[in-house]
Structure formats: structure tokens, C-alpha cells
Design brief:
30 helices; single chain; alpha+beta
Length: 970
Amino acid sequence: MKPRPISLALAALFGLTSPLAARPVPLPQHGAAHHAIAAAIGTWPFQKSDIAPDPAYRFGQLPNGMRYILRHNATPKGEIAVRMRFDVGSLDEGEKERGFAHFVEHMAFQGSTHVAQGEMVRLLERKGLAFGAHTNAFTTYETTTYHLDLPRNAPDLIDTALMLMRETASELTISPESVNNERGVILSEKRDRNSWQYREAQDRYAFADPKSRYLQRSPIGTEETLDGATAEALRAFWRRNYVPAKAVLVMVGDFDVAAVEAEIRTRFADWAPFAPNTPAAPQPSAGPIDGADGGRDSVYLDPSLSEHITITRRSAWRDEPDTWANRRKGLATTVGYAIINRRLQRLSRRLDPPFRAAQFGTNDIFHAGRDTAINVDSIDGRWRRALTAATTEVRRAIEQGFTQSEIDEQVAVLTSLAETAAAREETQGSVALANAALAMLRGGSIPSDPNANLAFLKAQTPALTPERVLAAVKADMAALDNPLIRFTGRRAPEGGAQAVRAAWKEASTTPLPTIMEPPPAPFAYTDFGAPGRVVEDKREPHFGIREIRFANGVRLNLKRTTLSRQSVLVHLAIDGGQMLATSDNPLAVEMTAMMGTGGLGKHTLDEMQSLTAGRMVSLGLTATGDSFNASAGTRPKDLLLQLQMMAALITDPGYRQEGENIFHQNANTMFLRLRSTPGSALQSGIGGILSDNDPRFTLQPVTAYRGLTFAKLKADITERLQHGAIEIGLVGDLDEEAAIADVARTFGALPVREAEFRQYDAQRKRPFTAKRGERTLTHTGPADQALIYEVWPTRDDRDPNEKQVFNMLQRVVRIQLTETLRQKLGRSYSPSASSDLSRVWRDYGTFAVAASVDVASVDVAKQAIDEAIEALAKAPPSQDLMLRARQPLLETIDNTLNTNGGWLGIVALAQSEPDQIERQVNAAQRLRAVTPEAVQAAARRYLAARDAVRITVLPEAQTKEPMATAKQPG
């Protein structure tokens, strides 16, 4: 178990949320004024604390014991996040019930007293909720949570959501027929989860906590218990555990809280336990976790694993409620761990790094124990050096302490996060606020007022001395004496586990060096020349997007919104991208995504991190179809710095060897995992299959990737970075004139650029194989896993009316496959259909269906896919099917501009691709105009059996056909 990033640590420390209105909040004092208020509303974690929850939440409890948390929030406008959480998970299962909590979760979608079998998903689709995207559920070791994201706050939709939650709570039918149908789906899900990652995790748990209950209670269950599950047994488990005392309903969104509260009280008041005189059983402990256990070693090998070493000691769980005193202690601990991990990060970024990555920290293991660990990802074959370096650095911190400058850097990061949370309090998203409430229920982290959190942080930071921070870390961690040591990789370490432990002992006793880190030089990229002159300034009529052109040719598009306070999204597009890749030079832009790791000419990436501590900025570039792109989320006060960094990256990139090293290590790992799962085998093979091995879309030999250098990348892309057309999009809480001035000082000050993005007519031709019919790929994963992928050539997306026809065709086919392969036949957990009409490649597009199945079900699944496609070609979809396909799409269109990310989609390239604006304006109208006959016609024209490429991915033992060498499209 690895320590959390500092942003997550802060969220846990402060229970970060946001109230509806900004208001000054004094530093909280010890006291319990809120206890009197809470006394009448049930039992909550904050009743054991002197920290008051954010007053925008309303807490309540019904006489039957069911609790609820409500909050009005208008971001996004009109939408509502609904969560129904039950304190029941796999830990609650008996020996013969393993997997039952998850099985019951599936049964909640399969029929109840007032919703016929198979109708729940259809009901929600008719109201605009797509299964998976807006309707879902999750089962963990400790909880089961049902999710509904309502795209509208219409009274009938709220009523439907509450009705379905009540049905789940007390009205499930769990019929034998539905159990038998769903059993295959769950076994399919279990089969899909059986990856090298899952198997490694299970072995890790078995080594570290061999006597624990959680080891024996994986939520997915066992084949024996799933095969033996009967409707009666599942119903008994549901009745025993789905009781009001274990239920909490959370609703956050744009609704009348008083009205919804009254409806909850009416709808759930008569819900009673099935055994009313029997109190709900407490959840069993996930342990035991043996804090005295030590001295054991393990080596776990798998061809897909790169080398990793874990040094760990377990310790007792600490029941520490979220109080201001514990937050004071936790703040010092968070800073201390962050400093150690920052040091480890610096080592990983050296020219000749001792390891790929390393982390140190302490985390809870459920509520049963704690884990203090050093985790080291080593370069294959160099585990000894990695272990020594990571161990030495942790020891150096614990024995020699920290510097004030290190503390100041981490405090700057924490303060920036807290300031941002406070600034955005009015526009925090409903899903995030609902998740904060759920986090309090299980972890006890109280979602307190962000202004109070900021005031607390500022009051505490002067006392964060090196001595106090070191003492806090020492008090929090378990001493790593005689630890558990586990090695994972492809090959056993020379000398076996004993050699690893010997290396640990040596690293633990070697005299420590004293290292002084020099302070970084001041940021060097503040002057790009005379600010650019605006030569064109107009406002687009539909959405009021301001469109600017500078004298040097750089374009700027701005849209001011108030959707997220103190938040600005930035998008940079530079002409070129994958258009620079040719058959003779197919990997021309392959290393573009590593440019950020090479830093800038005058600053390493590590120096940049220290220089920008406390600032919300990022550094990076990617190559997409016909442009190089950079995207970032920042704040108005950090916008200039973000633009300076972006401009510096394209005018003076660092191209340091450190970035090359990371790329080569990642390439080696990728090739060793190419066929480890059906999905990875398909993705590595599909590009070459569909393009008849066009080198631009086909995976090259691993030696080609090992031979790539920054020198080659620089030669291939510098001309475009220096001269290619540039378009910048800014969306968010910005001052237009100030933002224009910031761009003028950076990109507007660059030498003259090309005025227009190139057409690249010759490069936009992408082949689709003429070899249709059956293909076979192989994977090296479990022998029962197979994947079916069928793909047809279609068209590009130049016709916006046709685009909506394909959107409907995709949804219709997906619904049909879900109802046949999943619900009727129980052969596939998540069959899919996708349409990709290209904006980059002329006359190119694909339509594909995919299904992960058991090897024995391949023929049945193929037949079901064929029948679904053939039926659509023979007869248009029904009006009901069209409604269920169309409504979620309409809701997505209607809600697109409720977020800054949605706005950025049309603002980023508003000048070079103005049709995107027109498409957004008319998307809903075009979608509503799609008829069943149009969907049928598209299926007839494009989805003929003779035109399909039918790829089956089978386990290696099932076929002797050679694997195609290919690469994922794009």
C-alpha cells in the first residue's frame, strides 16, 4: 500500500468541500456548539469532534435509523448526484456467501416489486440516464453504493430516483430466473478481472496479512460460491444486511432541499428491517493485522511485472477521530512524508537514476491495522542499487531530519490547494461534494468549511519547524526493523530472497552521507520580447467567444464563465502533430509526450517543481492527429506563469537525457506486456491489421523505440514548433483584458508564425485493409479469456447530420448487445459498440463492437453479434429503443456547456474549426431528426457482414497462429 499524493493527503486532512456562499470564518476553537444541533439528527462522525461540518449540508435520520445527507448546489446547473450507500460489503459475507454482496448489487438492477425484471435500466434510459455513465453501483470490502447522476432536476426524475433507491432497499424480488441470468455476467466480470495486476495484488495480500479476513473476502467472490448462489440464499443475505440502520442516502445538486427531505421522509418512513427485533450485526474486522509479524521474505514472479521491492511493517490501527488537534498532528506528518517523497522523486530524475520511482509512507489497512512501507520500482536487474538508494534516503531523513526550505516548499503546495478550495467554494461540483460526504461516513474525515481549513493552515504553518515535523513522522511510522520484504519481477533476484534481505540489512547500517541541495536559480523565462500587437478582435455571435489575432499570427479564443471560481483552462494547439509521421519516419513524434520530463533549457524538471511550488501550473506537450497540444488547469493569478512555461517549452525545451531514460524504460515494459491480456494483445495488433501494416499505424520492433532520442525528436519537430500556426483557448473565471495581455507577453511576443494550420492533403490518407473476414490474435493470460472485436470501415465526420446518425447507431447497437450478450445470455460483462468518424483522416472512420467472453462462449457470442446487426439491417429499431438511445445523448448535449471542459471543446479551436460552434448549436435538433429508418439505412450501408474485420483474441494455447505485429490506432 503506497502513500497518497499530497493533494489527496490534504483532502483527507481537511475533508475538503465547499459551502454555497463565501463568508469569513474565524479560526475554530475547541468546543461542541454543533453537537446540540446534531443531537436531533442521528449519529455522525462530527459528533465526536470539535470540527463542525460545512453548514451547507443538511443531516437527518428517520425513526427507523436510515440517515440522509442533502445539499443544494448549482454546479453543474440543473444536475443532481444521488448516492445510496449501505454499510455492507464482502467483509459481511459468511464462508459460503463469498461474492454475495456484489451479487446482490447486480440483482438491484434485475427487478423489484414495482419495476419488472429487466426494466430498471430501460426506465432510466428513457429518462436520459445511460447505463454505466449515469447509472452504476460499486461493491467494496466494506460498502455497497448505488449511483445515479441525474442530468435534470425535473420533479419526475427526482421522484424516479427516490423510488428506485427505495426499491433497492426493501423491494428486490431476486427471482431464480434473474439469478441464473446474472450469474454468467458476474462470472464474466470475475474472469475479466483476472489480470496480472489482480493476481499480483492477491499474492501481496496473502504475504503481508495471511490471517486477515479481507484476504478471504475479495468482493468478486469465488467460482464455487457464485455457482452455488441461489435466489433464496441471496435474498437472505440482502434481507439481513439491507436494513435502515446501515443505509445513508446522499443527494447533492440543484434541488429544493426542504421538498426533497419531505419526500425522503414520506417514501422511506415505513421501511422496516425484515427481522425488526434483531439489531443489525456489526461489520466483522478486516483483520487480524499482525503488528508483531516480521522477518519474512517473498519472491513473486510474472512475465508482465517490472521489478519492485516492498519493505514493510504492520502496526495497530489508531482510532483517531477528525479533530483540530489531530489535524495539527496530521499536518506535520503530511509535510514530513511529502518531503521524503520529494527527495526520492529527485533521485528518480537524475541522469543515471538509482530507481524508476520510490515512495515512503504510512497508511491505514481498513480499520484493522496500519502499514509503514518503502516501495521501490527498480530498473530490471538493478534491484540492489535501487533498494540501497531508497533505504539510504529514508534513513537520511529519519536520522538527519529536514530543512526549513523543504518544509516551506511543501507548505506552499498545501497552502495553494487550500486557497484554491476556498476560492472555489461557490462552484464546487456536486459529485465532489457528494463524495466528500461519503468519505466522512467511512473514513471519518469531516467535510468542513474550506475557509476554516485555510485559516487553520495559515495559523499552524509558523509552528512547522524541522524538529516538529521530524517528531511527527517518527511518531506516526512503524520502525522498519526486521521488516517483511517482498520482491516482484520477471526474474528472481540473484541469490533469492536471502540476497534481498542481506542488501536491506547492509543499507540499514551503512554510514549516511550528508547532502546539501543547492537552491534553484530564479525562473528564467519572463521575457519573450515586445508584447504582441492585437490586429483583429471580434466576438463570435452564438456563444460570445472572443476571437483575437496577434500581429505575429497567433490566435487566441476566450470565454469567460463563472462555472468554477478561480479556475482557468488553457489549451494550446500548434500545427503538425502526427502529420509529421511518414512511412519512412513513422515514429517522428513518438517521444513528444516526454518533452516535459526533459525540463526547459535553463531549468530541469526538478528545479521547475521547486520554483513553482504553490503555483497551479504544469509542463508537457503531446502529438495528436494534426497538431501538437498542451492543456492545463490553472488559476487567474497563475495564468501568466502557465503561459510562460508553455512558451518556454516550445522555444527552449530541455531535451535532457533523463526524459529519454524514462521513455526507454517504459518502452521495454510495454513490450513485455503486449500480450499479457486479451485487451493489450488487441490494442497492440489492431493498428497493423486495419492498415495492412502501414508503418504509421503499426507497432515497430522494440529496438526502434530503444533507438529513439531527443536529438531525433528535436530534428523532426523543431521547424513546426518554431513556425507552425498557433491557436490558444482560454475558458473560465478570467479577466479578458488581463488574459489578452498575458498572451501578448508570451506567445504574442514570439517571431511571426504561419497564419493558418496546414491542410496536409497528402498525409490525410489512411488505409483500411482490403482483407476482410476472420483474424486471430493470441494472448498469454488465463486460458479461459477471449475477446471478440468486429470492426467496419465507415466515413469521416464532415457531415454533421451523418455524425448524429452514427451516434444513434452506436447507442442502439450497444443497448442491443447489452440486452442479448449480458442480460439474456449472461456471456459478457460489458459488451460495447463504438463509432469513430475521423476529423483528421479523410474518408476514414470505423464502427466496432467488442465483447469479452469465456473461450467456450466465442461462437455463441459471435452469433449473437451477427444476429443483432442483421436484425437492425432488416428492420428499423423500435420507437422505444430509439427513445432509450436518444435521451442520454440529448442530455449530454444539453449539459455540455455546464462545465468549463465542455466549453473548451468549442473554444480551443474556435477560429480554425468554426464548424464546431455550429455543430454545438444544432446538435440537439439534428439528433432529434434522426429517424429509425436512417439508423437502419446506416446499418445496411456500413455494417454488412462481408465488410467486417472479425478479430478473435484467444489464449496462446488455443491456437498456433502467429500474432500480428501492430499498434494501436492513432
